């Protein structure tokens, strides 16, 4: 009965219903979209057998292990019924030319059995397939099998090319499982032993320093997590002793032996996104929560005005015998109907919005995959928000709307509004709206300012017009001694291309997220501790600094005289020069690299370059050494070429670069991007926060303006007779204007004061996301206050102007 009447009541006022439902849909939908991401990244458990039993093994403060430690742990442990190690890899499916990468993983033999995963075609590999010297075998994911092989069952026994090596396909996993690491959709799984096939002489299977594996196990029945951890701690000492790296410094050797093994729950899997975006998603959920509160305040004000206009109807129903609680239930039913309808529409908005947000995350991670299917947590969250929202904006109007004296209401004027009502709740809601809007505007201003500062920051290089070409030679095609000559031939060929102003080669490009660092000893410098002499390095060709637009400040660049036979030389940045050679020129000085408990050959410093960002725009510039690539005795099979275009988009050079490199080696794998895009991708989190906080800040501003406009419109309408009398006895329009604007000013001032207090208390929560400014940045606070005050005053002025133009006789005749 209540529901049917509520539907009829809302249908009789479609404009009110549409505005209320749309406001709630935006608020609830935004909250659901953010929560669905939180659910996918943080809350969902792995789609495997009994995920709550899984434990991840860690060592010290690190979750990664060397393969020698893994093999020792695998052979010594007695607490896990199943245990496996895994590492990630990008596999290139192309046999040459432009690369076609898919996400893959190395897995030890018990991986599938431990997780309870089953195949639907062929078989999974087992411990028998994971042994040293194994042939190349692979298991495909369900989605990759459907996409690449059109679900053909005869795929078993065929071969797939991974990094130019044939791997026999053993089987296909069932649907639903995308990998251990949330955010990555692993397409191909290969045994751990096959890492030797892929990486050849760079294999880490016997490397006691290369940490690249993570370990997860399922304890034996009856063994708790604490018991498993206690047992692993007793195994740590002999495992670490057996895997002690050779030629390490005494201090490093002692620290290595003292590391402890621990466990942590792994039911939710592991995720690179979780660490990077967890706090950002929680902040966005708080932001959307405030937007929803503002929307609730707006709808509450609409209901207050609507219920006030219905007081004659309510009075008649009470006169006919309806009790107050009966009427409150009816009005709350209408509120809940609005909220539930808004939530249903909001789910559609959330589905679209969540996928849009994944696009933001994918800017920095090209293979981001998240399961955005709606599960019970998302449904429960949306239902809970809908119910709470309905109560928040419906209870006060329902309570106030039924506080009616039937006799007085029947005598009220034709508009059905009782004289003398001060509409205090509506004004209080406006103050709250203004306060919350100010908090969101300040937050948006801080995020936008941070993004702008990072986007316009001088990184020490010129990011525009530079094409990056990653080149990987086929494994074993060239002896190590020949690679340098091949890369040099490619570089000279690229330099000769039309449209190329300059070209260079390097191991690392700026802001690509990878690090290469060594401990070094410099002439005349006394170390203040172990970490004091940690220096980042990069191997670059001549012309690197010219191509990237990094100024050479002193000395010379590398040239053709810097060969394998000539003395080792290097160029350093300003930070290194200041740190290790304060007040002196580093030109002609030398350093040595610490190689375990020994020192490498001396390297002479021949130049100083301007500081340039290394791993991230946020990070301080580290002390950096640039080595001559021409003096690399054992170059890797991969390298990156930098091509600066004369004009236009650097991507216009891709076709010519392909042909140029293919002329030297058509089997080389190529991958193209631009330096500008690489830098932009590094700011994906900042871009996400700036875009969404700016959008929601603008939405909050609009809602606050609408709310203030609506309340003042109602107040002016309620006080038409009073204003008419004032003007009839001589009040000037300007005085009426000032009277109404005074009321507006009080509401805005109270809201701004409350908002500033809340902002000062809460903006500290976003301090970690800021760059170059504090959470209480005076400029941001001032601009936010001025913007909100100006917009809100404009909304109030429109109604004040309307009141000042009121015709006294017209107003008095309405009485």
State the main characteristics.
6-stranded mixed beta barrel; 10-stranded mixed β-sheet; alpha+beta; globular; single chain; 25 strands; 49% helix; 815 residues
In terms of topology, how is this protein built?
Blueprint (H helix, E strand, L loop, with lengths): L1 H10 L2 H30 L11 E5 L7 H10 L3 E13 L4 E2 L2 E7 L3 H5 L3 E4 L14 E4 L1 H8 L9 E4 L2 E9 L9 E2 L3 E4 L3 H5 L14 E6 L5 H18 L7 H8 L3 E5 L6 H38 L1 H9 L4 H39 L5 E2 L6 H26 L4 H6 L12 H32 L10 E7 L7 H16 L4 E7 L10 E6 L11 E7 L3 H5 L3 E4 L13 E5 H7 L9 E6 L2 E2 L3 E7 L14 E5 L9 E8 L8 H11 L4 E6 H7 L2 H35 L1 H9 L4 H30 L15 H27 L3 H6 L2
Helix pairs in contact: 1-11, 2-9, 2-11, 2-12, 3-7, 9-12, 9-14, 9-20, 11-12, 11-20, 14-20, 14-22, 14-23, 15-18, 20-23, 22-23
* Low-confidence region ranges: 413-423
Helical content, roughly?
Answer: 40-55%
State the helix count: 24
Determine Rg (CA atoms, Å). 34 Å
- The residue-averaged pLDDT reads 87
User: Which percent range describes the beta-strand content?
Assistant: 15-25%
Structural class: alpha+beta
- N- and C-termini, Cα separation: 37 Å
Give a short account of the largest sheet: 10 strands, mixed
- What gross morphology would you assign? globular
The count of strands amounts to 25
């Amino acid at each position: 009965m209540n529901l049917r009447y509520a539907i009829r009541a809302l249908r009789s006022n479609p404009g009110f219903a549409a505005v209320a439902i749309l406001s709630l849909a935006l608020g609830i939908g935004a909250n659901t979209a953010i929560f669905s991401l939180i659910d996918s990244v943080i809350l969902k458990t792995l789609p495997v057998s009994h995920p709550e039993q899984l434990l991840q093994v860690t060592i010290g403060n690190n979750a990664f292990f060397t393969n020698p430690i893994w093999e020792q742990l695998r052979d010594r442990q007695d607490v896990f019924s199943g245990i496996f190690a895994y590492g990630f890899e990008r596999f290139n499916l192309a046999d040459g030319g432009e690369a076609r990468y898919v996400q893959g993983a190395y897995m030890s033999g018990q991986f599938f059995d431990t997780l309870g995963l089953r195949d639907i075609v062929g078989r999974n590999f087992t411990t028998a397939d994971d042994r040293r010297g194994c042939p190349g075998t692979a298991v495909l994911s369900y989605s990759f099998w459907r996409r690449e092989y059109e679900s053909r069952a005869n795929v078993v026994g065929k071969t797939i090319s991974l990094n130019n090596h044939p791997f026999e396909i053993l089987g296909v996993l069932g649907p639903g499982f995308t990998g251990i690491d949330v955010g990555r959709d692993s397409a191909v799984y290969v045994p751990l032993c096959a890492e030797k096939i892929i990486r050849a002489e760079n294999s880490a299977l016997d490397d006691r320093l290369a940490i690249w594996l993570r370990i997860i196990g399922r304890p034996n029945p009856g063994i708790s997590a604490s018991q498993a951890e206690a047992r692993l701690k007793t195994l740590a000492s002999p495992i670490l002793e057996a895997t002690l790296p050779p030629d390490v410094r005494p201090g490093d050797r002692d620290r290595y032996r003292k590391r402890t093994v621990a466990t942590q729950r792994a039911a939710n899997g592991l995720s690179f996104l979780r660490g990077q975006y967890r706090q950002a998603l929680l902040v966005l959920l708080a932001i959307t929560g405030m937007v929803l509160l503002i929307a609730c305040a707006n709808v509450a004000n609409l209901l207050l005005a609507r219920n006030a206009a219905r007081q004659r109807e309510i009075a008649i129903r009470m006169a006919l015998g309806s009790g107050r609680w009966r009427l409150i239930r009816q009005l709350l039913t209408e509120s809940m109907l609005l909220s539930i309808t808004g939530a249903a529409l909001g789910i559609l908005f959330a589905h679209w919005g969540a996928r849009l947000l994944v696009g933001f995350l994918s800017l920095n991670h090209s293979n981001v995959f998240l399961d955005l299917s709606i599960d019970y947590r998302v449904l429960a969250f949306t239902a809970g928000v809908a119910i709470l929202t309905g109560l928040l904006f419906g209870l006060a109007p329902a309570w106030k709307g039924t506080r009616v004296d039937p006799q007085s209401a029947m005598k009220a004027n034709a508009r059905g509004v009782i004289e003398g009502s001060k509409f205090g709740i509506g004004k209080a809601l406006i103050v709250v709206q203004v306060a919350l809007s100010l908090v969101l505007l300040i937050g948006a201003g801080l995020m936008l300012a941070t993004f702008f500062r990072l986007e316009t920051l001088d990184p020490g290089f010129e990011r525009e017009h530079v094409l990056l070409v990653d080149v990987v030679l086929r494994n074993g095609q060239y002896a190590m001694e020949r690679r340098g000559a091949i890369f040099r031939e490619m570089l000279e060929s690229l330099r000769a291309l039309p449209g190329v102003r300059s070209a260079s080669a390097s191991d690392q490009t700026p802001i690509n997220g990878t690090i290469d660092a060594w401990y070094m000893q410099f002439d005349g410098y006394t170390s203040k501790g172990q970490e004091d002499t940690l220096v980042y390095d990069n191997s670059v060709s001549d012309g690197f600094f010219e191509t990237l637009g990094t100024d050479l400040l002193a000395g010379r660049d590398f040239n053709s005289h810097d060969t394998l036979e000539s003395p080792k030389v290097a160029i350093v940045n300003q930070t290194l020069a200041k740190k290790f050679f304060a007040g002196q020129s580093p030109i002609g000085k030398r350093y040595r690299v610490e190689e375990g408990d020994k020192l490498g050959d001396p390297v002479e410093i021949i130049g100083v370059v301007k500081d340039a960002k290394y791993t991230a725009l946020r990070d301080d510039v580290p002390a950096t050494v640039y080595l001559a690539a021409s003096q690399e005795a054992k170059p890797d099979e991969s390298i990156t070429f930098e091509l600066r275009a004369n004009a236009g988009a650097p991507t216009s050079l891709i076709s010519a670069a392909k042909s140029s490199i293919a002329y030297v080696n058509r089997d080389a794998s190529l991958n193209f991007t631009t330096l500008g895009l690489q830098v932009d991708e590094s700011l994906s989190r900042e871009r996400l926060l700036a875009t969404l906080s700016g959008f929601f800040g603008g939405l909050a501003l609009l809602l606050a303006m609408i709310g203030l406009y609506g309340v003042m419109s109602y107040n002016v309408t309620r006080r038409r007779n009073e204003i008419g009398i004032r003007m009839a006895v001589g009040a000037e329009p300007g005085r009426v204007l000032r009277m109404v604007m005074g009321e507006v000013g009080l509401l805005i001032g109270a809201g701004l004061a409350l908002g500033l207090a809340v902002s000062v208390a809460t903006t500290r929560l976003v301090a970690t996301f800021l760059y170059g400014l504090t959470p209480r940045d005076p400029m941001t606070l001032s601009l936010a206050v001025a913007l909100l005050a100006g917009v809100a005053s404009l909304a109030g002025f429109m109604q004040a102007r309307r009141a000042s133009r009121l015709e006294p006789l017209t107003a008095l005749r309405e009485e």
